[in-house]
Write a structure and sequence with these properties.
With about 270 residues, the chain is an alpha/beta fold. The protein has 9 helices and 12 strands. It is globular, with a radius of gyration of 18 Å. Bound molecules: S-adenosylmethionine (SAM). The site of S-adenosylmethionine (SAM) has 18 residues, from helix 1 and helix 4. The site of S-adenosylmethionine has 18 residues, from helix 1 and helix 4.
Length: about 270
């Protein structure tokens, strides 16, 4: 893989992790009392994880990882933010949940872990931080047992085209290309998506990956796609003009645009 500098992203995530754990958005108190942080469609589509080994890529401070542990999986979470991993470990300890957390850049994981898993899971805001999708596909394939599967629930790349900083935006507008470029979108950030202000301005770098690239990457890595599903709702208010459903999810009125996708792929 080419040499991409991800240090400014790591610094930003380190500060975000420490702020997120106390944020309303992440509501850790209700999680501690037993509430799962997993999206209902992920629980349904992944199915029974009892007794299965599960590797969670880019696990943030471990809420989803520990939610899978509560459902009976033997979990390992990895993230490149040491602050996030420390929080995840102390949450696991406090809740007396059996979980392993490893601090590693996703691309360095082959140097930091040498087991294979029944399930590799990742979700909600992960692909935009990855400059090299082919290497991502190879990492997933390497850590899956033969017969195991990969599952992702992610913001739809179509949505990435529309993301709007304008708090008064009133309708969808195409503001970015649908297609990947090796040059990231570079921006200055003084607050995270969870609505928390940071102590300093961070430089964020993001990439977009088309649905075709995501599917073809996994096929090239040797996986067999079981399904790819697109949904017209998302689990937070990504744009000011979204409306909330009775079940708490958010839609763009008219349901004309896919906002998340899910994909399951097995390793033969
Ligand atoms: C939006 S969060 C994932 C959120 C998670 N689904 C949740 O709701 O808790 C993205 C995570 O990716 C991690 N990350 C970003 N780039 C990474 C990389 N190259 N290697 C490993 N982790 C990375 C960040 O530290 C962050 O914790």
């Amino acid at each position: 893989m080419k040499n991409f500098d991800l240090e400014s992203n790591r610094e930003m995530w380190n500060e975000w992790a420490e702020l997120h754990v106390n944020s309303e958005f992440y509501n850790v108190e209700s999680f501690k009392k037993g509430r799962s942080s997993l999206y209902p469609i992920a629980v349904e589509e992944v199915g029974d994880v009892g007794g299965k080994s599960l590797l969670h890529l880019m696990c943030h401070f471990g809420k989803d990882t520990l939610s899978w542990a509560r459902r009976g999986a033997k979990v390992t979470g990895i993230d490149f933010s040491d602050k996030a991993i420390n929080i995840a470990r102390s949450l696991a300890k406090g809740l007396e949940l059996d979980a392993e957390f490893i601090c590693s850049n996703l691309y360095d994981l082959p140097m930091n872990l040498d087991r294979q898993f029944d399930i590799v899971f990742t979700s909600a805001g992960v692909l935009c931080w990855l400059p090299d999708l082919e290497e991502w596909g190879r990492v997933i394939a390497q850590f899956l047992k033969s017969g195991g599967f990969f599952y992702i629930l992610e913001g739809h790349p179509f949505l990435n085209m529309l993301l709007d900083e304008d708090p008064d935006a009133s309708k969808p507008e195409i503001l970015r290309s649908y297609f990947y470029t090796p040059e990231p979108e570079v921006y200055q950030s003084a607050a995270s998506y969870a609505g928390v202000k940071t102590s300093k301005t961070h430089t964020g770098k993001e990439w977009t990956h088309s649905l075709g690239d995501i599917v073809n990457t996994l096929i090239s890595a040797g996986l067999r796609i079981e399904f790819l599903r697109e949904y017209p709702y998302i689990f937070f208010k990504a744009m000011p003009y979204m409306e909330q459903d009775s079940d708490g999810s958010w839609r763009i009125p008219g349901d004309k645009i896919p906002l998340i996708f899910t994909l399951k792929a097995t390793k033969p």
